[in-house]
Amino acid sequence: MHERVAVRGPAAGSLPILLAVVFVDMLGFSIILPLLPFYAETFGASPAVVGLLVASYAAAQLVGAPLLGGLSDRFGRRPVLVLSILGTAAGFVLFGLAGSLTVLFASRVIDGLTGGNISVAQAYVADVSEPAQRARNFGLIGAAFGLGFVIGPALGGFLSRWGYALPAFLAAGMATLNAVAVWIALPESLPAERRRGGATAAPRAGGRAATAEGAEDGTGRPQAAAGATTSRPPSAFRHLWAGDRAGGLLWLRFYFALAFVTFQTIFALWSQYHLGLDAEKTGYVLGYIGVLIVLVQGGLVGMVARRFREERVLVTCIVVMAGGLAAWAFAPNVPVLLVTLVPLAASGGVFRAVATSALSAAVAADEVGAALGAATSLESLTRALAPSIGGVLLEHYGTWAPGLFGTAVLVLLLPYAIGALRRPRPAGAQAGARADAEGRRTDPPAAEGGVGA
Q1: 273 three-state secondary structure
Q2: If you average pLDDT over residues 385-397, what whole number do you get?
Q3: Which of 11, 77, 254, 289 could join 124 via S-S bond, C-beta 3.0 to 4.6 A?
Q4: Distance CA 267, CA 270 (A)
Q5: Cβ neighbour number for residue 408 with a 10 Å cutoff
Q6: What's the domain range around 112?
Q7: Whole-angstrom distance, CA of residue 137 vs CA of residue 132
């Protein structure tokens, strides 16, 4: 059997560099997370205003993520990564210098507009990954994010002993160095001929060139005719109403995220009211969740993606998450809680990586950044909606209500998911599907596009 490689193309050796960049990016972001409510209160912010401050970042990312993804399709991944990271650094500097609540809001909006670069990093992975290894590599990106999130809040809490500005300035310095590292060490992954508005790729050594509309170039994604230029609308959101496979995957990402993010955003409040945990103990549990995410994204995703069809994996994750949220809702003590968090972290991590991989393969090569930006934007929308939904449910119905809300969303999503995943793949994605199948050892054959038994 031939040996499979994880990445390809001129930027094939750049994945470790990108993982380091993503880790530092998330480390800088998460350093200021535990400081936000306390810093805002020094300017007289009420709990409601603190909630708006948190939501302002998600709202700005809702706008910024698809713009950054689309720009990376047109101008390349590296310059957009550099500019977005520098924007994040500017937001951190403004955060540290904030002398009023208005400036604090401005810093979060700037960071949100430029902080949607996760979609650009994911598009970079899609550019350089072989189809059979794409989900595994998306999992590694998730692991780098998770590791940064484990370390960042603890570091930020420690540095806050010397004031709230110091962690922000450290994060700004890290972001600046990160931008320099991207510019110097990270090669461009999207050649000019594959960018939106440019000619399609010419034949590559050992690869295939597109020769007709709907053909493929070895990436597992459809390409335009050779020498042609693209004229598709810049917004990837059109897939939501197109009834195609990409649209189905975007809707799955949105509703799955709504259920999972409700759990994430209400967890601290749930821990206080349901189990009586204080801030320190809740922090330890959140650290435990971070470790689980790193383990899942770094190891489990690749194993599952190699052995099973993506349709089966996504449907299974929805079922497991629905059961896990129901179990979380009624967890009677911390030991039981720690057990219920395992399937939640596993299904959440695997679903995100595999769904991202599937979405990147369901659109044309020059639309990957925009499509992943749209997915990030939709998830940002859930982060603006979920805290309010979870808070109202917990206050008016009880601590069990947010968990059962998530379960209900996923149960209702399941029939739609089965139908959406049966939608045909784009013509050029068939080769990608065959390449994925080569990496599996145990999953039996199934009809193209089907969910499987």
Answers
A1: helix
A2: 82
A3: 77
A4: 5
A5: 14
A6: 14-186+236-438
A7: 10
* CA-based R_g, the chain, Å: 21
pTM of the model: 0.66
The pair phi, psi for residue 129, each rounded to 5°, is: -100, 140
Output the six-digit token pair for 193. Answer: 């001929």
pLDDT digit string, tens, across residues 41-92: 788 877 667 767 877 887 888 788 778 878 888 888 889 889 888 998 999 9
Structure tokens at 379: 């998830």
- Give the C-alpha separation, 53 to 40, whole Å: 8
Query: Percentage of residues in the chain with pLDDT exceeding 70?
Result: 80
Q: Give backbone dihedrals phi and psi of 110, rounded to 5 degrees, phi first.
A: -60, -45
Q: Is residue 196 part of a domain?
A: no
In-domain check, residue 224:
no
In a domain? residue 227 = no
Report how far apart, in Å, the C-alpha atoms of 102 and of each of 43, 94, 97, 115, 401 are.
Answer: 10, 11, 12, 19, 35
- List phi, psi (to 5°) of 216: -135, 160
Count the neighbouring beta carbons within 10 Å of the beta carbon of residue 230: 18
In a domain, 195, yes or no: no
